[in-house]
Design brief:
eight-stranded parallel sheet; Enolase-like, domain 1; alpha/beta; single chain
């Protein structure tokens, strides 16, 4: 049996607009391309490290440089994806393994998982924090896209409410909001009550993670549903949130890949929670991998390919916002030439 080998290459993805959330701003997203070779066959994945959790492209590179793969059998998923592999590195390897398995078996990932590609949801399009003029210009560029997710969490409460008011003067589609831990309980209740008149579908992560009882206090005092992100990284985080929130955001970068995401989705369902499938600012590799799972969820926020100016890969496409899965084997992602 040929030895499995893995290589990691940094990816730099310039963005269409500076992307600002409550915690910071970026103009270029940095991720890591993971190539897994088994003889003449190759699977590709993407690691999207999150600095909030102490990970970076460099830490992913360092992990694979220092640690041999735990098996040479590409179907020994449990062995290869053991708990000692950090989340970002595990996610990149997990995606590459699923891509390789699908190519070996001649089936797209959704088929390996027994899912119906016709049941994909419509994804939101994220509008980062900006001044009112820039925000409205971004909304105009979105055009008729049916769902927006608007980043809040910075500025005064009045300024944040005014941002949504200005958007609602021009946009009649579904609006979701995401504070990225930018509020405290009092501010969250104040802003969300003000926003109730604007038909907000849900609010994502209003306060700092780690305080489920405070999320419950917010949920009991406002009518806008509450969804977690930073509070819900993996399946084992969910029991503490029972009765405190309405739904959770599942991201492959945080769950350690497809297997972790499936565990989290099924745990949330068992607890009666709704599920959103999200992404980071990343290439079509990771976005497409997440899209293959989307028939299992209520909401999608898989808009990474919308936000990047130059993506060296193509995969998932969009039909008026509805996710369209590639039907090629594995992830169905291919490399494209960039001028």
């Amino acid at each position: 049996m040929a030895a499995l080998s893995v290589t990691v290459t940094p990816l730099e993805l310039p963005l269409v607009h500076p992307f600002k959330i409550a915690r910071g701003e970026e103009t270029v997203a940095r991720t890591a391309l993971v190539r897994l070779r088994d003889g003449n066959a190759e699977g590709i994945g993407e690691a999207t490290p999150i600095d909030r959790y102490g990970e970076s492209v460099e830490s992913v590179e360092a992990y694979f440089a220092r640690h041999a793969l735990a098996s040479d059998d590409p179907f020994r998923f449990e062995t290869l994806l053991h708990g000692g592999v950090p989340p970002a590195a595990r996610a990149g390897l997990d995606l590459a393994l699923h891509d390789l398995a699908g190519k070996t078996l001649g089936k797209p990932l959704y088929a390996l998982l027994g899912l119906d590609p016709a049941l994909t949801p419509v994804t939101s399009f994220t509008i980062g924090i900006a001044d009112p003029e820039t925000t409205l210009r971004k909304v105009a560029e979105v055009g008729e896209h049916p769902v927006l997710k608007v980043k809040l969490g910075a500025g005064t409460p009045a300024e944040q409410v005014e941002t949504i008011a200005l958007i609602r003067e021009r946009y009649r589609g579904i609006v979701r909001i995401d504070a990225n831990e930018g509020w405290n309980v009092e501010t969250a209740i104040k802003i969300l009550r003000e926003l109730e008149r604007f038909e907000i579908e849900f609010c994502e992560q209003p306060i700092e993670a780690g305080h489920p009882e405070q999320l419950r206090a917010i949920r009991e005092r406002v009518s806008i549903p509450i969804v977690t992100d930073e509070d819900s990284l993996v399946a084992s985080d969910l029991p503490a949130l029972y009765g405190c929130v309405d739904g959770v955001n599942v991201k492959l970068a945080k769950t350690g890949g497809i297997r972790g995401a499936l565990a989290m989705i099924h745990t949330a369902r068992a607890m009666g929670m709704k599920v959103m499938l999200g992404c980071m600012v990343e290439s079509a590799i990771a976005a497409t991998a997440a899209a293959h799972l989307s028939p299992l969820v209520d909401w999608a926020d898989i808009d990474g390919p919308f936000l990047t100016a130059r993506d060296p890969f193509s995969g998932v496409t969009y039909d008026n916002g509805k996710l369209v899965l590639p039907d090629a084997p594995g992830l169905g992602v291919r490399e494209v030439a960039i001028a």
